[in-house]
């Protein structure tokens, strides 16, 4: 049966905590831009990897960098997901200046809008929408404005790395590329779309679990509290100065009384080093699990428009970076959630407050076979088209600009994959 997925509810995680004066985003003091005197060069050993990766984050977050590298040893796909700014530095600092791809970029970069920023195959999952789980993008740490084509390139690069055994060049053919763009275009135009059997089974299983414990049922509360109390490792007691701020926020938003809480800081992944406060809040009628997560600057913002190449004029990027209020408005206008996420401040740092749901779950691609992975990719391309079309006014010529470059896009994806594989190998052990 064909159906359309309207009003997708995206539970959004942004990471945007940066030095902030009014509504102006200031780069971290230790930030090294591509225009600071040297062009991008492929890191060839562990120390060079540390140097380039540490340039993207604050000294506090860089304490977690060795652990991030350790956790991403397993695969280049994990490595790419753990370091989103590196992807953009390679894309902009190397391949955007490559003569093989310059015509493609000249024709596609002018089409801009709100982008996911960290679009990869595991940033999609089951999200609650009007008491039913649907498939939607579930991680927006890097939500920003930029060239729409960047989301497509990153998504396809993720797929090329997630393939279990086959060579990407054998699977990712021109016909494959055409199917991907067709699914994406259907999403842009909000046309009826038939999801794959894989996606149908995934959602059916999740909705069956949800049906046993609906949100108004006391068993739902028990399940949420049980998952909360499992506590994400590593967890810490909430510092008193932070807890006072949390109490202030909960009181100002009239959410109720905090009855349990802890602080979690991920040691690895793209959001490593950011504080996440987990709260149980009781308003006498309902019990809510709330997460208040620190925000960091979006990865593309750290790299955008920075190149010391004389070809910089070919790819101008003068559009100002969006501020935190713009980002939260995108979430609130696109989502279909009650209550909606909120932008809050703790000690002059920006945080995102959102309501957690124990039945929301991400898609894991490690155990998928080649066919399942391909079907999921096309479904995700449709969802990406919906996302772009919902938050931006997309010029109809964008798809026309993409059409002649199916083979070029694939060549670019393979080149990105090879570059990231080289860096991943260099990062495996100190030398």
Let me know the average pLDDT. 84
Rg, nearest Å: 21 Å
Helix coverage percent? 40-55%
Strand order, sheet with most strands: 7-8-9-10-12-11
Beta-strand level of the residues, as a percent range? 15-25%
What is the count of helical runs?
A: 17
H-E string: EEHHHHHHEEEEHHHHHEHEEEHHEEEHHH
Briefly note the structural class of the backbone: alpha+beta
Q: Quote the distance from N terminus to C terminus.
A: 56 Å
Low-confidence stretches: 1-37, 307-312
Total strands: the figure is 13
For the largest beta-sheet, the strand count, sense and barrel status come to: 6 strands, antiparallel
Shape assignment: globular
Describe the protein's architecture and organization.
This protein is of the alpha+beta class. The protein has a domain of 244 residues. The protein contains 17 helices and 13 strands. The strands form 4 sheets. It has a 6-stranded antiparallel beta sheet with strand order 7-8-9-10-12-11, sandwiched between helices.
């Amino acid at each position: 049966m064909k159906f359309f997925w309207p009003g997708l509810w995206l539970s959004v995680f942004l990471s945007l905590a940066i030095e902030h004066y009014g509504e102006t985003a200031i780069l971290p003091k230790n930030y090294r831009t591509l225009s600071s005197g040297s062009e991008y060069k492929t890191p060839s050993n562990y120390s060079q990897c540390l140097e380039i990766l540490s340039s993207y984050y604050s000294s506090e977050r860089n304490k977690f960098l060795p652990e991030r590298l350790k956790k991403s040893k397993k695969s280049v796909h994990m490595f790419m997901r753990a370091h989103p700014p590196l992807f953009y530095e390679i894309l902009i600092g190397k391949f955007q200046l490559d003569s093989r791809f310059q015509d493609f970029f000249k024709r596609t970069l002018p089409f801009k809008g709100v982008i996911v920023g960290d679009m990869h195959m595991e940033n999609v999952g089951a999200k609650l929408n009007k008491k039913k789980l649907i498939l939607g993008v579930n991680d927006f740490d890097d939500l920003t404005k930029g060239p729409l084509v960047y989301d497509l390139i990153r998504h396809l690069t993720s797929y090329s790395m997630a393939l279990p055994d086959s060579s990407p060049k054998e699977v990712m053919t021109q016909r494959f590329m055409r199917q991907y763009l067709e699914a994406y275009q259907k999403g842009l135009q909000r046309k009826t779309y038939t999801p794959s059997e894989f996606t149908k089974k995934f959602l059916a299983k999740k909705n069956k679990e949800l049906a046993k414990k609906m949100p108004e049922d006391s068993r739902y509360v028990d399940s949420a509290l049980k998952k909360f109390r499992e506590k994400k490792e590593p967890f810490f007691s909430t510092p008193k100065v932070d807890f006072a701020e949390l109490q202030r926020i909960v009181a100002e938003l009239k959410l109720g009384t905090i009855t349990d809480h802890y602080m979690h800081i991920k040691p690895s992944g793209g959001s490593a080093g950011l504080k996440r406060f987990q709260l149980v809040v009781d308003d006498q009628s309902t019990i809510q699990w709330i997460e208040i997560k620190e925000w960091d600057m979006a990865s593309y913002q750290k790299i955008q428009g920075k190149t010391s190449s004389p070809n910089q004029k070919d790819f101008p990027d003068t559009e100002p970076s969006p501020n935190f209020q713009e980002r939260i408005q995108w979430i609130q206008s696109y989502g279909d959630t009650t209550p909606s996420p909120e932008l809050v401040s703790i000690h002059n740092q920006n945080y995102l407050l959102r309501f957690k749901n124990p039945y929301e779950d991400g898609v894991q691609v490690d155990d998928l076979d080649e066919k399942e992975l391909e079907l999921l990719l096309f479904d995700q391309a449709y969802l990406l088209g919906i996302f772009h079309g919902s938050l931006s006014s997309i010029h109809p010529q964008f798809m026309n600009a993409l059409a002649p470059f199916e083979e070029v896009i694939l060549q670019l994806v393979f080149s990105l994959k090879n570059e990231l594989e080289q860096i991943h190998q260099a990062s495996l052990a100190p030398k």
